[in-house]
Amino acid sequence: MHDRTRSEYRTQLSQELPDAAEVTDLRFEGPDLVVYTSTPEVFAEDDRLIGRLASSLQKRLTVRPTADARSSRSEAHAAIEDILPDDAGIRDIEFHPETGEVIIEAEKPGLVIGRGGRTKRRVAAETGWTVEVVRTPPMESETVSNVRNFLKQERGDRRSFLERVGESIHSGPADPEWVRVSTLGCCREVGRASFVLSTGNTRVLVDCGDKPGAEGEVPYLQAPEAMPLTDIDAVVLTHAHLDHSALLPILFKYGYDGPIYLTEPTRDLMGLLQLDYLDVASKEGRTPPYDSSMVRQALKHTIPVEYGNVTDIAPDVKLTLRNAGHILGSASAHFHVGEGYHNVVFSGDVHYTDTRLFNGADNDFPRSETLVMESTYGRRGDHSTDQADAERTLVDTVRETVRNDGTVVIPAFAVGRSQELMLVLADAMRTGELPTVPVYLDGMIREATAIHTAYPEYLRDGLRERILYEDENPFLAEQFEHIDGGSEQREAIASGEPAIVLSTSGMVTGGPIFFWLDVLADDPANTLVFVGYQAEGTLGRRIQQGRREVSLPRWDGGRSRVTLQLGVEDVSGFSGHADRGGLMDYVRTMSDRPDRVLCVHGDETATNQFSSALYDEFGMATYQPRNLETFRCD
Amino acid sequence: MHDRTRSEYRTQLSQELPDAAEVTDLRFEGPDLVVYTSTPEVFAEDDRLIGRLASSLQKRLTVRPTADARSSRSEAHAAIEDILPDDAGIRDIEFHPETGEVIIEAEKPGLVIGRGGRTKRRVAAETGWTVEVVRTPPMESETVSNVRNFLKQERGDRRSFLERVGESIHSGPADPEWVRVSTLGCCREVGRASFVLSTGNTRVLVDCGDKPGAEGEVPYLQAPEAMPLTDIDAVVLTHAHLDHSALLPILFKYGYDGPIYLTEPTRDLMGLLQLDYLDVASKEGRTPPYDSSMVRQALKHTIPVEYGNVTDIAPDVKLTLRNAGHILGSASAHFHVGEGYHNVVFSGDVHYTDTRLFNGADNDFPRSETLVMESTYGRRGDHSTDQADAERTLVDTVRETVRNDGTVVIPAFAVGRSQELMLVLADAMRTGELPTVPVYLDGMIREATAIHTAYPEYLRDGLRERILYEDENPFLAEQFEHIDGGSEQREAIASGEPAIVLSTSGMVTGGPIFFWLDVLADDPANTLVFVGYQAEGTLGRRIQQGRREVSLPRWDGGRSRVTLQLGVEDVSGFSGHADRGGLMDYVRTMSDRPDRVLCVHGDETATNQFSSALYDEFGMATYQPRNLETFRCD
């Protein structure tokens, strides 16, 4: 099968390439077809040649010059400095002779690429090296630079890994025997998202998360549908939140050696959150189920995919990720099985409308017979406030607290909600709706924010430009202060001037939020504001439901019994999740409305009421699976 | 776990046994606990000792004397002949020194056993040998004697097999992690019955059949829920029909080496039908998926279970079979999982009311949260005629045909329907409702009938006595003639005097029925009578639906195109399956009505309408699974 495929590609290339083009070798690297050529100038001269080939081969294409077609590194270095404009802000130029690639890191990648890719192609034509461009993050991010350095260092290993994956994607039968979805978690509950999509030939694991507030409850990876883990063909991660990603590294502990498909920002955020997961576990005296070497293993096996690119991930499965509007890099995953045989969409966590940070979810899948759909806010009454109203309420609450000399503390996911709140607060302070007071970012919020600025392409249209071109990066506003000291710094802030604190974790299950509750609890002038979903079993949920006597773990390992005398407010409308209306709209506006929907990622009432509503409104077959079930789709 | 269990049994035994009893060893053989004793007389003296022990240990118990506690074979032989009454009709006495058992085959086993087991115990007390009694079939059956001889010959191997199974049943965790049912076939279709019941620790395969009329469609044994087949812990066969049993031997081809639990008659019928399955396949030029050595493997791995006996089949699963009323030895299988954790019933094929042959299905399960239920006649209109009316119609049709000098041909399953019809015809001829004409039994019908007479305990109360005690065996009536010649004999019958022919196969998919249709087609005086379910895709169904131009395979390998000019009649009411009312009654009268029912073994309309009816009438959760799905039960 595979050899036939390779020779088919060769035949097609020879028909479509100009006579002058010499192809010396064809290889698969992961989902990509790599064309080695001794005449790189032929490719560089024609603006649209590679695009035309990619589209007629229906294949992502990389063209690499053979070694003798390239100029020396020093010549190439000089040519690059000569060709690129000074204001591109070149930070680093790195040559990889084994692939003929040169990686250029720049503050303004657009200027390295040039209009329609012209500048980049000119470098390629003059030097014979293939150019890859990466952006220097406007805020320094340890995560981004660690991830990039690690992947650079592993480049050799990764290449053989990609070749191995490439061979396996391009071999084996392309006709599926069946299509099934198995639920390893996340059914009639929020947490431990994990599913297997299987075709008889191929098994794809979608997500592998933990369950906030119930650390022992992990995905049922021991189910026969997932076993042996070594035989899974591919993993797809919809987004980096721990309830989708926390247990991914454990796959490598049990011998999985295949790829993880995800967006680039999801890759970086995943690493950040998984390391934090280990850190929190060890602080809480739990033995984490894997160690940091497994996080590196996971990272090493990532294959980034851009929104909208159709990517072969198995002989009979193509993956397309689309923006899910939930957090940075979050995606809905579309699987095209066989040649037009069946289509399954996993919504992942979605936000249907635009927010300040992100464009609303993109549900424009050409076909989708089966939909596995999140249902977090699927209850009949789950109508969330308009964000404009929510912002007003938040600003009012903050203003009132500040006026009373109090401090506002907001438990927030480091990734997503925090940046949304930062934009709201910065804007309110800019327009004078709020007095400018310090906004302290505790936990990983600053780092997560820096990662956002490294991937402006993934942000909402207007915001992207503000960060990229206008140097109006709102995240750099001076009232934002990262907490980098210890408890003294926090105590000083708590007893000092009015301020706002954004602190992890978002559901009050760990992290510095415990400390803030402890030190702010006594003073009724302070306010605790919930802005996000609080899952069953979390302390956040219990406080939200009226509990005021709480026991908080202290840094020293003891626990404080605390009576919460501070105000507690619930501001809905900031959720990263679509509300009931948004969920219905997501399904209603799909280009091809599915025949069946599995309602998952919601408590029992939510999945029940949402599936009934979908059935009533659209007449589609709807299910509320339980964990450990398997559904036939085709 | 296992050692603790064994020592627990030992402790309990020592508390409950009289002081004089010496237990030298305890072993597990399959589900049984074998007690070795040097004082067999202590067990033989007390009528109820073994029964009391078995019930307090909740364990089937076998007591075996140690070698030095036994008299010599010749002494024992003399003692047996001395003790047993002459009219017991002893046919064979066989000693097995390795187990201390003596197997006595007798025409009247009751006389060997004696009232309350007295005679049998007296033999044991006087000789030190343990007595096992088997019945000599009133009709000679090649199958029964082949099976018995084979199992005798394999006794050594079987003993180590049983010890291995015994160890595995009594080891491992007894707490199930979950309870699931997976569908490998038989969903929205009739045929290829096969299910997996799994608990996280244990996997049990229930049935493994073919699909009549669609030979290529076999159970999805390659589903991950069943793989690897070598790791399956136990197989349970509900009854011998090929749509439940045909593919069982293939498990051994793929390395399965565990037990098959079934009733004794199912064991014998299974062997008969599987060998016939191979024979038909080779006659039709198909390559069968296994050979006869695999049938022997299957036979060698059987562990017979009696109706109502609770049997440990895994550390966390107990099996109880109950009469399903469908064919000889047919059973519904009740699985008790964990210690009161969950109960699943597989109805198997059921007939709810009494027939001439069998008592109606026994649905008296103490608990049953989940029911996997057959739905063959689950449609709204599937009301079958009362059997009395059906018998009248049949007798009228036969009488009319005979009066017109015609021959009646009835395609019938060798097992079940044929014997029912024999009883009806014999009775009508005895009372003069029908003239006495020859009834020819073609295919395996005579052999199947002989097997029925070997297991009278499995027949309806009144019939059992007629066969056992009154020497009024209706199957021995002289008008029944087995076809043992070739096509000449059949041609002579077809052109001769009026007669009745019962011929396999029951759905006109193979066997001598093709020949009969061929030779009887031309004469409108002849009548073809359907008395059983004709599955989708079978020739029987097509003729039933009006097709009269048919192509029939000939013995010589060619095909005849034939126009059926004989009469075609449909006599409903003889089905081995409950009709819609019977199915509803089965569920209605269960001692513990299930929370959820999976409706299987019926076409799409039947499972759909039956599951709606169950939901409407009892408010239970009902499902119509598809093949390759998995449902959580607990």
From TrEMBL, chains A, B:
Cross-referenced PROSITE patterns: KH_TYPE_1 (PS50084)
EC numbers: 3.1.-.-
Location of region: KHa: 3-70
Binding-site residues for Zn(2+) 1, renumbered to this chain: H239, H241, H326, D349
Domain K Homology: 96-163
Domain of life where this protein originates: Archaea
Binding note for cofactor: Binds 2 Zn(2+) ions, which are required for nuclease activity.
Role played: Terminates transcription on the whole genome. Termination is linked to FttA-mediated RNA cleavage and does not require NTP hydrolysis. Cleaves endonucleolytically at the RNA exit channel of RNA polymerase (RNAP); the 5'-3' exonuclease activity of this protein degrades the nascent RNA released from RNAP.
Subunit structure as annotated in this protein's UniProt entry: Homodimer. Interacts with RNA polymerase (RNAP), interacts with the Spt4-Spt5 complex.
Descriptive protein name: Transcription termination factor FttA
Species of the source: Haloglomus irregulare
